[in-house]
Amino acid sequence: xxxxxxxxxxxxxxxxxxxxxxxxxxxxxxxxxxxxxxxxxxxxxxxxxxxxxxxxxxxxxxxxxxxxxxxxxxxxxxxxxxxxxxxxxxxxxxxxxxxxxxxxxxxxxxxxxxxxxxxxxxxxxxxxxxxxxxxxxxxxxxxxxxxxxxxxxxxxxxxxxxxxxxxxxxxxxxxxxxxxxxxxxxxxxxxxxxxxxxxxxxxxxxxxxxxxxxxxxxxxxxxxxxxxxxxxxxxxxxxxxxxxxxxxxxxxxxxxxxxxxxxxxxxxxxxxxxxxxxxxxxxxxxxxxxxxxxxxxxxxxxxxxxxxxxxxxxxxxxxxxxxxxxxxxxxxxxxxxxxxxxxxxxxxxxxxxxxxxxxxxxxxxxxxxxxxxxxxxxxxxxxxxxxxxxxxxxxxxxxxxxxxxxxxxxxxxxxxxxxxxxxxxxxxxxxxxxxxxxxxxxxxxxxxxxxxxxxxxxxxxxxxxxxxxxxxxxxxxxxxxxxxxxxxxxxxxxxxxxxxxxxxxxxxxxxxxxxxxxxxxxxxxxxxxxxxxxxxxxxxxxxxxxxxxxxxxxxxxxxxxxxxxxxxxxxxxxxxxxxxxxxxxxxxxxxxxxxxxxxxxxxxxxxxxxxxxxxxxxxxxxxxxxxxxxxxxxxxxxxxxxxxxxxxxxxxxxxxxxxxxxxx
Amino acid sequence: xxxxxxxxxxxxxxxxxxxxxxxxxxxxxxxxxxxxxxxxxxxxxxxxxxxxxxxxxxxxxxxxxxxxxxxxxxxxxxxxxxxxxxxxxxxxxxxxxxxxxxxxxxxxxxxxxxxxxxxxxxxxxxxxxxxxxxxxxxxxxxxxxxxxxxxxxxxxxxxxxxxxxxxxxxxxxxxxxxxxxxxxxxxxxxxxxxxxxxxxx
Lengths: 664, 201
Known about the structure:
The complex is a heterodimer.
Chain A lengths: L9 E5 L2 E7 L3 E2 L4 E10 L4 E8 L6 E5 L5 E2 L8 E5 L2 E7 L1 E9 L8 E12 L3 E14 L8 H8 L4 E2 L4 E6 L2 E7 L6 E8 L12 E4 L3 E6 L10 E10 L2 E10 L13 H15 L6 H14 L4 H31 L13 H19 L6 H5 L5 H20 L7 H10 L3 H23 L12 H26 L4 H23 L5 H20 L17 E2 L2 H9 L4 E6 L4 H11 L2 H9 L3 E6 L5 H9 L7 E5 L6 E3 L5 H10 L2
Parallel strand pairs in A: 3-12, 13-20, 21-23, 22-23
Antiparallel strand pairs in A: 1-2, 2-4, 4-10, 5-9, 6-11, 7-10, 8-9, 11-12, 14-15, 15-18, 16-19, 17-18, 19-20, 22-24, 24-25
Chain B lengths: L1 H17 L11 E4 L4 E3 L8 E5 L5 H8 L2 H11 L3 E6 L11 H10 L6 E4 L4 H6 L3 E2 L1 E5 L5 E5 L20 H10 L14 E2 L5
Parallel strand pairs in B: 3-4, 4-5
Antiparallel strand pairs in B: 1-2, 1-5, 3-7, 6-9, 7-8
């Protein structure tokens, strides 16, 4: 138990274990660092713990007593092993443990150097014995020279985890945590395990699934049963390959998921972005048709009283806001049920698209003809004239939002991304801000109707304009038919077109008989209801079978393909798009499909990846989420090395070429 | 509009809370106590309840009783009208498994103040609550909602030279006080420390 100057080793005997202090050298000179080890000898079947013991137990603690001005590092813990205690999991060392420390001498020192450690540890099997002991050693003057412990200590030092130099990342997908690593010959890894350093993020007891290919591997982890807010993913990665074992320290900030951090906005900025985004949304291509309805409305009303105009503007805004809130509510509800959805999700449903086709066809016909909708109701006095008009304004507001949904305007993307991450009320407020921004121009016009005086007086020309406006409506119907054709079989598209024809017949019948009474009117109503029901029955609800064909000059996105290309240091242009996303289609027409862009992508050997979100796709949804987005478009340029660049939502040929030129 | 808004808000908040285990409804259970009586968690609805997982031979538990720290926490709970249930999930033949007589003797000799000492030799209740260590503490409020889970105090860490337990920051006392004052609980979850619960294998 008392140290012997020659053997340089002292023992402390405890039940089922003993402790000794060993040093790399018996001699030490000034200003020198030597490796020191606390060696725990445990009886067979007994163990002691790692720094993080897992579900129960505790690692050792050491208090050093050193001569003046000597310093000691924290314990350098060698890589641990799993010690399951069903149904729990603990981490530690069996049979023997050697905890290392580096001790540095000062410039001036006196001999012999007395090093003493007070150690508190646990020796455990099915039960745990707390142990406390003191060990000491004397070192003499001289320069560092090998002794019988030198080799043991230096070998053990190699098992102390080092920082991992190759790239790795953490991805949170569907309540699972994926640790992804790049590594040459990853196929040679026979097993891998991640030892979490902290409580409350990763489950200790759950199995960790290893996936490997030539140049990378990943570990699938489950979250801890009880979650504690954690800032970093910290721990030790153990790899077994060809009989060798390697240990690496991992430390990743969690709020920087992928390589890029999603733009981190605070709630105030997000509200502001949402507001601006909503304002710009008015100028997006998908809102044009509905704008025309609204502008016509304003012109009609411009003759009315100031009060009335204001009322209409406010009711329209209320329609807009209500719809935004309903959309937000549905989105949040679906998200909570685990559905992978985002902005514009409505148009992933063939049902909604078909209904919109009927609606646009109908609105076009109403514009073209003389049908007065709702006249019947007014006659019975159920609603006073002004109220009926107000209901119309409200519905126009609703419609405006519904058709605006396929568009993401600049500023909107990050704001919506935040909205989805916001707990509680925050997200609803963001949607409200978006709605307020969207309806601001109309509200302004309502409150300052003198602005309307610039518009021409109503008259015969208005009838002409209304008829002209029918064409953008029918145009929208055509576009939706095209979107529908990528979701359902050709026969189903045809069925919807028949449905649209029946809707037209309905409207014609109603218009033809709108001034008549009795049998002919009732017959017309009866037939209309029947035709309408039949056209609804024709609507398809399921997607067509089989994958879509792959883009000619690029590849279809999959996270695995992206991962592999990234590992091969391949530059990539990733396009998140959907057929129902008009902003996407416009960008494709004005920028992506231009010859100059195709040429520079080819010249720079940049792979074009297309992630098509026309239909529901959880993989794409989670990829969008990892960049803080919930909607398309999203354009990401991955240089062969370094951080990806997120491009603006609105692209031009010059802008895109400019970005591509800048990389590499 | 107003109605719609409140509906949406309450719907959404409800969903958020459902994912936080600590603020969820605590599962009910029924166990035999050391006097042979069946005791259910629901018997105490309307009162705050503290659950203590124990194993008297575990060095950590022994230290909390020897220093009087556990008894002081029990006294605090009693003064604040909270029910204290001590639960033993040690399986027969493992450390900490006791019969009624021994359990009552331990209560008397240690001046402990549990309302009941409950036996869970099958480990069902321990596993339902995810009890990992002895001690491992849980607090359930008068409405049956789980409000705290984790260590008794912040004295955990490496080694066994635990801080002065009576001076440690006692999470259980803190949470009881905050529940009493209708305040938010500062520490809702902490890392439990101690021996592993000796479940049936």
